[in-house]
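lol ok so funny story. i was supposed to be doing the assay writeup but got distracted and ended up predicting the structure for this chain instead. priorities right. anyway since i did it might as well share w the group, maybe its usefull for someone
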Amino acid sequence: MTQPTLREKAKRIAIWAKKLSSSFSPGDYLTLFHGQGMEYEESRHYSSGDDLRRIDWKVTARADHPYVKVFREEREVSFLVLLDVSKSLFFGSGLRSKIEVASELAALLALIAEKRGDRVGVVLFSDQVHFVEVPRKGKSHVRSMVDHILSQASKGQKTSISFGIDQALSVLKRRSFVLLISDYLDTDYEKALTKLSGLHDVVAAKIVDEGIDFDLRDIGLQGVDLESNVAGIFKARIGPDEQDASWRAKIERTGAKPLVLKTSDQTDRVLHLFMKKRRRS
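and the output, tada:
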């Protein structure tokens, strides 16, 4: 990517971030994840119109009147982008490759987090580590990090999501928000993702190219593995388990929240809809 193109792309994403930040309250930003980032402060009498999901059942059971929990927003939040930069992300059947969409999403949420005054960091991985920036504050830090994300070239050959998660766990010293972006052309990462989700609030974002990421096995076709360049019939790398419905269910079982983004989608619109959906849930 040439430098002028990089600047134009960064400027466009900065505009998206500003619009999304102004469209939602800080609490809406937090609901992008598990609704965490809120510290319990006290319980008070229930009033008409209070959110029933915040009823404090333990206090209510001891009293003769329902109580609700009152929270205050944590001001010190850490946000980590965990971005897969393996070979398969650098393919695209349309105008945009998967890595372009993945980088846009990573940069967009990093800028939103920066506008909130949060600490922001990034880990770029494949089956090895390519770049690490621990979460910290600062506009210049985040803008430099965004430029690095947007200027990615193909790195490692294969994807190892478990390896990437191990790196995130070594970087994060307190409960944080983690955005894990990959095409998930990998297997046996559920245990690691469950561990990550138990310690942090995780959104698992899957980048899909509909012209490439489909089930070859079901229709009896051979193909070429996008990471190894080996031809054959796919049995594990691309199969029914990677279809959207089953993938979403698998991710939800780990405790993470699934987000699917297609290369034909407009990144800011999909994120806006996802945040609205999370706010209503």
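Residues 215-223, 233-241 have pLDDT under 50 and may be disordered. Residues 23 and 272 are 9 Å apart (CA to CA).
back to the writeup now i swear
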